[in-house]
Amino acid sequence: MKLVKKAINNFLFAVGKISIVLVRFYMYVVYRPKAHFVDKSVQTNKLKEPCIVIANHTTIVDPPFILSILRGKTAIVIAKDWFEKPSINWICRAANGVPCDRFNLDTEWALLAKKELKKGRSVVIFPEGKCREDGDLNEFKSGFTFLARSTGYPVVSIGLDGKYSFGHRIHYVVDVPRKVERTKGVSSGVDLENQSAQFRERVKLLKRCALRHDLSSLPAPDTVYEVVPPLPEVTEETVQSSAQSTVDSTLAYKSPCDQAGV
Fold it and tell me: What global pTM score does this model have?
Protein backbone atom coordinates (compact mmCIF):
# COMPACT_ATOMS: atom_id res chain seq x y z
CA MET A 1 0.00 0.00 0.00
CA LYS A 2 2.83 2.40 0.86
CA LEU A 3 4.52 1.67 -2.46
CA VAL A 4 1.29 2.43 -4.33
CA LYS A 5 0.83 5.69 -2.43
CA LYS A 6 4.44 6.68 -3.10
CA ALA A 7 4.05 5.89 -6.79
CA ILE A 8 0.91 8.03 -6.98
CA ASN A 9 2.64 10.93 -5.21
CA ASN A 10 5.61 10.71 -7.55
CA PHE A 11 3.30 10.65 -10.56
CA LEU A 12 1.36 13.69 -9.36
CA PHE A 13 4.64 15.51 -8.62
CA ALA A 14 5.80 14.87 -12.20
CA VAL A 15 2.45 16.03 -13.56
CA GLY A 16 2.79 19.16 -11.42
CA LYS A 17 6.20 19.96 -12.90
CA ILE A 18 4.80 19.59 -16.42
CA SER A 19 1.80 21.74 -15.48
CA ILE A 20 4.10 24.53 -14.26
CA VAL A 21 5.85 24.58 -17.65
CA LEU A 22 2.47 24.75 -19.43
CA VAL A 23 1.24 27.51 -17.12
CA ARG A 24 4.38 29.53 -17.80
CA PHE A 25 3.82 29.18 -21.53
CA TYR A 26 0.16 30.23 -21.08
CA MET A 27 1.11 33.32 -19.06
CA TYR A 28 3.54 34.50 -21.73
CA VAL A 29 1.15 33.91 -24.60
CA VAL A 30 -1.98 35.39 -23.02
CA TYR A 31 -0.60 38.23 -20.85
CA ARG A 32 2.68 39.04 -22.69
CA PRO A 33 4.52 40.25 -19.54
CA LYS A 34 6.43 43.52 -19.86
CA ALA A 35 9.20 44.17 -17.31
CA HIS A 36 10.36 47.57 -16.07
CA PHE A 37 13.51 47.80 -13.96
CA VAL A 38 14.17 50.53 -11.42
CA ASP A 39 17.95 50.55 -11.79
CA LYS A 40 20.39 49.73 -14.55
CA SER A 41 22.13 47.30 -12.19
CA VAL A 42 19.03 45.08 -12.35
CA GLN A 43 17.96 44.50 -15.94
CA THR A 44 17.03 40.83 -15.88
CA ASN A 45 14.47 38.49 -14.33
CA LYS A 46 17.16 35.92 -13.69
CA LEU A 47 17.77 35.50 -9.97
CA LYS A 48 21.52 34.97 -9.83
CA GLU A 49 21.59 34.74 -6.04
CA PRO A 50 18.87 33.55 -3.63
CA CYS A 51 16.64 36.33 -2.34
CA ILE A 52 13.20 36.98 -0.88
CA VAL A 53 10.77 38.22 -3.52
CA ILE A 54 7.67 40.14 -2.40
CA ALA A 55 4.80 41.51 -4.47
CA ASN A 56 1.31 42.93 -4.18
CA HIS A 57 -1.58 40.45 -4.25
CA THR A 58 -4.59 41.34 -6.42
CA THR A 59 -5.95 37.98 -7.60
CA ILE A 60 -5.19 34.27 -7.38
CA VAL A 61 -3.42 34.61 -10.74
CA ASP A 62 -0.53 36.49 -9.07
CA PRO A 63 1.35 33.41 -7.73
CA PRO A 64 1.54 31.47 -11.03
CA PHE A 65 2.26 34.69 -12.91
CA ILE A 66 5.20 35.75 -10.74
CA LEU A 67 6.65 32.22 -10.79
CA SER A 68 6.40 32.35 -14.59
CA ILE A 69 8.31 35.61 -14.98
CA LEU A 70 11.15 34.76 -12.60
CA ARG A 71 14.19 32.91 -13.87
CA GLY A 72 16.12 30.65 -11.53
CA LYS A 73 15.32 28.31 -8.68
CA THR A 74 12.26 29.39 -6.70
CA ALA A 75 10.01 28.37 -3.84
CA ILE A 76 6.80 30.06 -2.76
CA VAL A 77 5.04 30.55 0.56
CA ILE A 78 1.45 29.29 0.27
CA ALA A 79 -1.44 29.55 2.70
CA LYS A 80 -1.64 26.25 4.56
CA ASP A 81 -5.40 25.94 4.01
CA TRP A 82 -4.76 26.08 0.26
CA PHE A 83 -1.65 23.89 0.37
CA GLU A 84 -3.57 21.07 2.08
CA LYS A 85 -6.38 20.98 -0.50
CA PRO A 86 -6.06 17.61 -2.30
CA SER A 87 -7.12 19.20 -5.59
CA ILE A 88 -4.06 21.49 -5.74
CA ASN A 89 -1.59 19.97 -3.27
CA TRP A 90 0.22 18.16 -6.07
CA ILE A 91 1.03 21.36 -7.95
CA CYS A 92 1.88 23.21 -4.71
CA ARG A 93 4.53 20.58 -3.97
CA ALA A 94 5.83 20.76 -7.54
CA ALA A 95 6.24 24.54 -7.12
CA ASN A 96 8.31 23.95 -3.95
CA GLY A 97 5.51 25.35 -1.84
CA VAL A 98 6.11 26.34 1.79
CA PRO A 99 2.85 26.05 3.79
CA CYS A 100 2.09 28.88 6.21
CA ASP A 101 -0.81 28.99 8.66
CA ARG A 102 -2.24 32.48 8.18
CA PHE A 103 -4.87 32.13 10.90
CA ASN A 104 -2.66 31.03 13.80
CA LEU A 105 0.81 31.78 15.13
CA ASP A 106 3.16 29.84 12.85
CA THR A 107 6.95 29.90 12.85
CA GLU A 108 7.60 26.59 11.11
CA TRP A 109 7.16 28.18 7.68
CA ALA A 110 10.16 30.46 8.36
CA LEU A 111 12.36 27.44 9.11
CA LEU A 112 11.22 25.75 5.89
CA ALA A 113 11.77 28.95 3.89
CA LYS A 114 15.26 29.27 5.36
CA LYS A 115 16.05 25.74 4.16
CA GLU A 116 14.84 26.67 0.66
CA LEU A 117 17.13 29.71 0.64
CA LYS A 118 20.09 27.58 1.70
CA LYS A 119 19.29 25.24 -1.21
CA GLY A 120 19.78 28.19 -3.55
CA ARG A 121 16.09 28.89 -4.14
CA SER A 122 14.59 32.36 -3.96
CA VAL A 123 11.44 32.48 -1.83
CA VAL A 124 8.35 34.28 -3.13
CA ILE A 125 6.07 35.82 -0.49
CA PHE A 126 2.87 37.86 -0.77
CA PRO A 127 3.02 39.81 2.52
CA GLU A 128 -0.63 40.90 2.37
CA GLY A 129 -1.72 37.34 3.05
CA LYS A 130 -4.86 37.70 0.93
CA CYS A 131 -6.09 39.29 -2.29
CA ARG A 132 -7.31 42.85 -2.53
CA GLU A 133 -9.00 44.06 -5.72
CA ASP A 134 -9.93 47.68 -4.89
CA GLY A 135 -6.55 49.05 -6.00
CA ASP A 136 -5.07 49.50 -2.52
CA LEU A 137 -2.81 47.13 -0.59
CA ASN A 138 -3.55 45.31 2.64
CA GLU A 139 -1.26 45.76 5.59
CA PHE A 140 1.99 43.81 5.13
CA LYS A 141 2.68 41.05 7.63
CA SER A 142 6.17 41.23 9.09
CA GLY A 143 7.12 37.60 8.45
CA PHE A 144 9.19 38.41 5.36
CA THR A 145 11.21 41.10 7.16
CA PHE A 146 11.87 38.64 9.98
CA LEU A 147 13.06 36.05 7.46
CA ALA A 148 15.25 38.59 5.65
CA ARG A 149 16.79 39.96 8.85
CA SER A 150 17.44 36.55 10.39
CA THR A 151 18.99 35.04 7.25
CA GLY A 152 20.74 38.04 5.70
CA TYR A 153 19.20 37.47 2.26
CA PRO A 154 18.01 40.62 0.44
CA VAL A 155 14.41 41.49 -0.42
CA VAL A 156 13.42 42.20 -4.03
CA SER A 157 10.13 44.09 -4.36
CA ILE A 158 7.91 43.71 -7.43
CA GLY A 159 4.87 45.79 -8.31
CA LEU A 160 2.29 44.00 -10.50
CA ASP A 161 -0.41 45.95 -12.32
CA GLY A 162 -2.78 43.04 -11.57
CA LYS A 163 -5.09 43.51 -14.58
CA TYR A 164 -5.45 39.96 -15.85
CA SER A 165 -7.90 40.52 -18.68
CA PHE A 166 -7.76 39.04 -22.15
CA GLY A 167 -5.83 41.27 -24.51
CA HIS A 168 -4.22 43.35 -21.76
CA ARG A 169 -0.45 43.22 -21.52
CA ILE A 170 0.67 42.82 -17.90
CA HIS A 171 3.30 45.31 -16.77
CA TYR A 172 5.42 44.88 -13.67
CA VAL A 173 8.24 46.81 -12.01
CA VAL A 174 11.27 45.15 -10.39
CA ASP A 175 13.09 47.03 -7.63
CA VAL A 176 16.72 46.71 -6.57
CA PRO A 177 17.59 44.18 -3.81
CA ARG A 178 17.49 45.59 -0.31
CA LYS A 179 18.77 44.06 2.92
CA VAL A 180 16.87 44.25 6.19
CA GLU A 181 19.02 45.19 9.16
CA ARG A 182 18.20 45.79 12.82
CA THR A 183 17.48 49.41 13.71
CA LYS A 184 19.29 50.46 16.86
CA GLY A 185 17.19 51.77 19.72
CA VAL A 186 13.97 50.16 18.45
CA SER A 187 12.45 46.97 19.81
CA SER A 188 12.65 43.98 17.49
CA GLY A 189 8.90 43.61 16.89
CA VAL A 190 8.31 47.31 16.27
CA ASP A 191 11.32 47.47 13.96
CA LEU A 192 10.04 44.58 11.85
CA GLU A 193 6.58 46.15 11.58
CA ASN A 194 8.03 49.55 10.66
CA GLN A 195 10.22 48.07 7.94
CA SER A 196 7.30 46.01 6.62
CA ALA A 197 5.27 49.22 6.37
CA GLN A 198 8.11 50.86 4.43
CA PHE A 199 8.17 47.96 1.98
CA ARG A 200 4.39 48.25 1.61
CA GLU A 201 4.67 51.89 0.56
CA ARG A 202 7.43 50.98 -1.86
CA VAL A 203 5.43 48.17 -3.47
CA LYS A 204 2.40 50.47 -3.71
CA LEU A 205 4.48 52.94 -5.72
CA LEU A 206 5.91 50.15 -7.88
CA LYS A 207 2.39 48.99 -8.67
CA ARG A 208 1.35 52.54 -9.55
CA CYS A 209 4.31 52.83 -11.91
CA ALA A 210 3.40 49.49 -13.47
CA LEU A 211 -0.12 50.75 -14.15
CA ARG A 212 1.21 53.96 -15.71
CA HIS A 213 4.12 52.26 -17.55
CA ASP A 214 6.28 55.11 -16.24
CA LEU A 215 9.07 55.13 -13.64
CA SER A 216 9.80 58.87 -13.71
CA SER A 217 7.85 59.56 -10.51
CA LEU A 218 9.46 56.74 -8.52
CA PRO A 219 11.61 57.91 -5.57
CA ALA A 220 15.07 56.49 -4.90
CA PRO A 221 15.17 52.94 -3.45
CA ASP A 222 16.46 54.18 -0.07
CA THR A 223 13.60 56.68 0.39
CA VAL A 224 11.95 56.67 3.83
CA TYR A 225 8.18 56.95 3.48
CA GLU A 226 5.71 58.58 5.83
CA VAL A 227 3.51 55.67 6.84
CA VAL A 228 -0.15 56.27 7.66
CA PRO A 229 -1.55 53.56 9.96
CA PRO A 230 -4.29 51.58 8.15
CA LEU A 231 -7.88 52.00 9.33
CA PRO A 232 -9.16 49.07 11.41
CA GLU A 233 -11.22 46.56 9.48
CA VAL A 234 -14.95 46.95 10.15
CA THR A 235 -16.57 43.60 10.87
CA GLU A 236 -19.80 42.47 12.47
CA GLU A 237 -17.90 41.69 15.68
CA THR A 238 -16.40 45.20 15.90
CA VAL A 239 -19.79 46.81 15.30
CA GLN A 240 -21.40 44.69 18.03
CA SER A 241 -18.52 45.45 20.40
CA SER A 242 -18.84 49.18 19.74
CA ALA A 243 -22.58 49.06 20.27
CA GLN A 244 -22.14 47.15 23.55
CA SER A 245 -19.59 49.72 24.73
CA THR A 246 -22.05 52.50 23.98
CA VAL A 247 -24.81 50.73 25.96
CA ASP A 248 -22.47 50.14 28.91
CA SER A 249 -21.41 53.77 28.92
CA THR A 250 -25.04 54.90 28.84
CA LEU A 251 -26.01 52.66 31.74
CA ALA A 252 -23.01 53.80 33.74
CA TYR A 253 -23.72 57.50 33.16
CA LYS A 254 -24.89 59.50 36.13
CA SER A 255 -26.54 62.88 35.70
CA PRO A 256 -25.69 65.81 37.98
CA CYS A 257 -28.95 65.17 39.88
CA ASP A 258 -28.00 61.52 40.44
CA GLN A 259 -24.58 62.55 41.67
CA ALA A 260 -26.15 65.02 44.07
CA GLY A 261 -28.51 62.35 45.36
CA VAL A 262 -31.62 64.24 44.23
Answer: 0.82
